[in-house]
Input
Amino acid sequence: MAWKPSLFAFLTFMIATVALCGALVYLATMSVFARTESMRAEVEAERLDTIMVSSVRAVLREPEVSLETTATILKSAPQMREAIIAAAQHDSRYFRSLMVLDSKSVVITVAPPSSIYAGADYSNAEFMVRAGSSASVRWSSIHAGLDGGAREISLGMSLDGGAILAILDFEALASRLAEVLGTSAMGLSLADSGGTYIVHRDTSKVDRRETDSGLLAARLANPTANVYRFIRGVGKDASFVLARRIPEVDWFAIVDRPTDFAMVAFRSSLLLVSAMAALAVGLAAALAVVATRRLMLDVKVAGQEVEHPEDGGAAPSMYFKETIAIRNATRAAAERMRAKDADNVRLKEALSELAKAQEALVESERLSVQGAMAATMAHELNTPLAAADSAAVTAECSARDMLRSLQRSGSDAIARASIALSEMVDRYDPESAPTGSDRRRHVQHIETILQSRLAADSCAGHEVAEFGPAMLAERIVDLGLGPEDDRVGIIADGLCQDNGESTLLGISAAEIAVSCRVAKAAMAKAHGVVSSIRGYSSPEDGGGFRPIRVKASVEEALALLYVHTKRDVRLELSAIDDPWVDAQPATLQRIWMNMIANALDAIGYRGYLGVRILARDGRAMVEFEDSGPAIPEILLRSLWQGDSASRMRGERAGINLAPVRDLVNLAEGEIGCTSAPGCTIFTVSLPEHSGLGMSGSM
Output
């Protein structure tokens, strides 16, 4: 006997291979995780450093704004110079002294008046030469002040041929910076251009005015760089330092973190995770081996019973209840088969007849079930559709009320902008809204117009805070406004009023009104579909015949089947005539839906479907043409029998047409078929409405 491999050995090998692959995947995952943690820590350091720079700039901006405001007031009221200087120095939390210098850089006014800087000459100070010639604020380096040697920092700017100079209390400024920066697991500190700490989590270093030697060494190597990265310390105490320059004052924002910051958490959990993973893999492998072994024993027992059925009672017991159930079921099936071989033929015939009867029953009942489901669906959809339509009307009215309120309560520019927005709502047409490249071109054009208008002198001091021109342009284009429309300028003028808040509110109201109009149009379409569903589900009785327009009935059936949305179906509806017929609405609609469904099945939802409506000799005729396979001639003669769909399997897809013939007969009509490769035509012929001509209309 030829050697055969052991299934148990093969499964054991596969389990070991899976365990090895799992271990390799685990190691690769841990490696990627470690790298990811390291990169995340670096990104976090960069983010903190950037936040530090922004925070420091925000704090430094406070005295800058105070100085710029004082200079502006002095230009408008120079005769009140002493009072203005005194008030500004008193109100500022940072100004130790505030003074005005003449064109020769000599102090002519100082606050407080008792300041030691009164009459001081700054003509030889390099900082004042730069500040006196600059229209913007300039900062000096940190220096020892004349008042007890306390650290000071100055800022100044030109003022009508002279200059305005502020001496800041550096300790108050440093205290504010320390308050803003706070503390972090990653050490945050601030140093001046000489590397001396201004803010540090160890306040003693600030008190002793220590310097960051690592930063000084990095600056000596590359004096002009804006960002420095270096390692401070060695071994376990080593840390990665990131220093970023603050241009206005030439200070440096420093983030100091341990080099193993990212790996500490990873290493702390590595042992536990590894042990749990190894335990899980080992337990899974052991259970798989045991289960496989037991399964093989059960298979062996079952094989022995098959080879020696007479010894079935003495066969050893099985382990799994499923294999026991399978063995018992096999025994019972074998006994029944041996006892009832003579009944198998009759059973097969009975099952065949039952299948045919069941197919006919399902086909006949399917239409009534569909009708009941359609009626329930129509009832359930009507209430939320009505509520949504009412809500849309209410929301649109509220939005229009907001626009009318802005027209009455705002300035002339805001009123004109509100009127323009109301006109845009009234004329909005979603079908003509630009898309794709046209929309991008319109947005760019309108963005340019808005940028020009908002940057004009007439709009100075009224900047739109929340939104930029790009976002405003997109919103205006989505409301249907073109780049050549004069209303773009009107809306831009409105945005220049009260920081644009009223006009932005108007734009939002217009968007709400437009959205409500779109929603109402969509719900109107939904109401149409619900009406079609109601017609489909209407009850049929002997007195339900009434005049029906054939074209409208066919269009409803196409809508219910969503044929227009099937992109791979080339649909063509041609109404050569416009006949009416006497029929029950639901019966007629079921005929059309079954014929359309049959054609779609035949072409596999890919190909041509043509529906033609015409009137000939007092009869309304509807032809359904499809590009599906031809129906063999032998099957055409039995096309209307109950098992036509099953007999055409392999030749052409489609539904059982016997119920369709019954529905056509119920409507006192006729149905026929002609078929050729790529062109199969089903023709339904019904008597025209007796009160009309051959192709009349109601």
